[in-house]
Amino acid sequence: MHSNKLTVHLNEMLMCSSDLSQITYVVACAATCSFNDYFFRKFELIFSRIHMNLNFSGILSMDKFLMRGNESEDDATLLVNSISQISADAFFVTQKLHSNNDHFDVIYYKQILPKKLADRLLIYCEKNIKYFTGNLARVFLFNQWHPIPRKQMAMGHPNLHYRFSGNVIPAKPWNAVILALRNLVSEIAKCDFNFVLINRYKDGHDYIGEHRDNEKELDPSSPIASVTVGEKRDFIFKHYRVNHQPASASEKVCIALEHGSMLLISADTNRHWSHSLPKRRHCQNVRINFTFRKMKLQLNEEDKD
């Protein structure tokens, strides 16, 4: 069957047919034939658009379809290929968060990475990401240095760094896997991110306190994208008050960030709302977060310390 006809045929049947034998036949044809990257993207888009995980006997699930390939491929190559095959034009289930206050523009993408792909990314990071130690694993608060209550490291374009609570975090060169994730996130967010801060929370005792990302190195017009793999954790927004008085209940927004999800925070929200990932003692598993930012390539003299 010609690839274009196969695409149209599958699309029509998945949208309106309940005949599983027909669907099985078309998916089996697609799984066994040799087709080019263009057709693969079209095929993946169909699966994404209907947001289904086909678990019927004889039918490939979206996870299995994305993760197909030569079993001899190393983890990094397989991850790069799988992430690169996800179309930013695919239909993602999204939720626009709401608040009674102004300047709140946040979109939650429930799953940009299929579960099996998110699982493999988590395993890859646990095996391969080397987090900062020593002076780079501490913050300066209340006139003294404290260990960071999580692990972190950064990657990005050359010569970029990030000032965080008295410390200067240098960007290590991108590796192929995180660069592929960066490319996908940049396409979805329509922003050319050039830096990522990777935080590892070993369990619910690790956390990040209330803060705003207002460092001088950040492009003030750029959104921030946060991708989660691992344990689901609460992420809390609080309307920022200059006088630091406690926020009322209507000024707080909480979202549980799930495995494979992405949170897109507008620049305006970041200026007017703080955010945090509080302790949750019932959470016992690892969560890894990738926070993508756009940094200024060069600081003006008046911006330098």
UniProtKB/TrEMBL annotation:
PANTHER family linked: ALPHA-KETOGLUTARATE-DEPENDENT DIOXYGENASE ALKB HOMOLOG 2 (PTHR31573), DNA OXIDATIVE DEMETHYLASE ALKBH2 (PTHR31573:SF1)
Record-level Gene Ontology MF annotations: broad specificity oxidative DNA demethylase activity; cytosine C-5 DNA demethylase activity; ferrous iron binding
Keyword terms: Dioxygenase, DNA damage, DNA repair, Iron, Magnesium, Metal-binding, Nucleus, Oxidoreductase
Record's keyword annotation contains Ribosomal protein: no
Any one Gene Ontology cellular component term annotated for this protein: nucleoplasm
Positions annotated to bind 2-oxoglutarate: N199, Y201, H211, H275, R287, T291, R293
InterPro entries the UniProt entry points to: AlkB-like, AlkB-like_sf, ALKBH2, Oxoglu/Fe-dep_dioxygenase_dom
One GO biological process term: DNA alkylation repair
Needed co-factor(s): Fe(2+)
Pfam families tied to this protein: 2OG-FeII_Oxy_2 (PF13532)
Catalysed reactions, as listed in the record: an N(3)-methyl-2'-deoxycytidine in double-stranded DNA + 2-oxoglutarate + O2 = a 2'-deoxycytidine in double-stranded DNA + formaldehyde + succinate + CO2 + H(+); a 1,N(2)-etheno-2'-deoxyguanosine in double-stranded DNA + 2-oxoglutarate + O2 + H2O = a 2'-deoxyguanosine in double-stranded DNA + glyoxal + succinate + CO2; a methylated nucleobase within DNA + 2-oxoglutarate + O2 = a nucleobase within DNA + formaldehyde + succinate + CO2; an N(1)-methyl-2'-deoxyadenosine in double-stranded DNA + 2-oxoglutarate + O2 = a 2'-deoxyadenosine in double-stranded DNA + formaldehyde + succinate + CO2 + H(+)
Binding site for substrate: Y162, R163, F164
Record-listed E.C. numbers: 1.14.11.33
Subunit and partners: Interacts with PCNA homotrimer; this interaction is enhanced during the S-phase of the cell cycle. Interacts with nucleolar proteins NCL, UBTF and NPM1. Interacts with XRCC5-XRCC6 heterodimer.
Domain Fe2OG dioxygenase: from-to ranges: 192-296
Gene: Alkbh2
Species of origin: Trichinella nativa
Localization in the cell: Nucleus, Nucleolus; Nucleus, Nucleoplasm
Tree of life domain: Eukaryota
Top-level EC class as recorded in UniProt: oxidoreductase
Protein name from the UniProt record: DNA oxidative demethylase ALKBH2
Gene3D superfamilies, alphabetized: Alpha-ketoglutarate-dependent dioxygenase AlkB-like (2.60.120.590)
